[in-house]
Every structure is written in C-alpha cells, then in structure tokens.
Amino acid sequence: MAWALLMLAMYPEVQDKVAAEASALGETPGFAALSKLRFTRDVFREVLRLYPPVPMMVRENTRPEEMRGR
Questions:
Q1: Cβ neighbours for 47, distance < 8 A, ≥ 6 positions apart
Q2: Which of 52, 51, 53, 25 is nearest to 38 (CA)?
Q3: Sign of CA dihedral 57, 59, 65, 70
Q4: Are the C-beta atoms of residues 37 and 21 closer than 8 Å to each other?
C-alpha cells in the first residue's frame, strides 16, 4: 500500500484519474462497486508487479537431503 501511495504521489495525473474513478461511484458505494474501479485495480497490479511483497522466499529443509552426491 505504501508503494502505491508513493507512486500515486509521484504521478499526480494518475492520482487524479484514480480519485475521479472513486468519486464517480457515489457517496457510499457498496462492496459490489469495487469491480467498477478498473483503472485503480490496474494501478495496484502494476505497483505489485514493480514492487512484489515477497521478493525472495527462504526455505528450510526438515531433514538432510542428498543431491548429486552432496
């Protein structure tokens, strides 16, 4: 979320487009109205592509393993 907010702050024209899309939903939109936020969804997906939440996974063996004689 922090990366998305930073990216929106860096690009005011995108921020304005996201705000306009959200304000077009009305005063108190329901949960079903979230599907109408297509541009906003695309913005968040792009931020997740650029800055993935888990850049590396560390795995730990539960028992010793042998691979190629090692």
A1: 3, 4, 7
A2: 25
A3: positive
A4: yes
Mean pLDDT on 47-51:
93
Percent of the residues in the chain that have a pLDDT greater than 90, as a whole number: 56
Indicate if the pLDDT at residue 41 is higher than 90: yes
**CB-facing half-sphere around the CA of 23: CA atoms within 13 A:** 6
Helix axes 38-50, 12-23, angle to 10 degrees: 140
Torsion of CA 27, 29, 35, 36, to 10 degrees: -20
The rounded distance, in Å, linking the Cα atoms of 29 and 41 is: 16
Tokens standing for residue 49: 């592509």
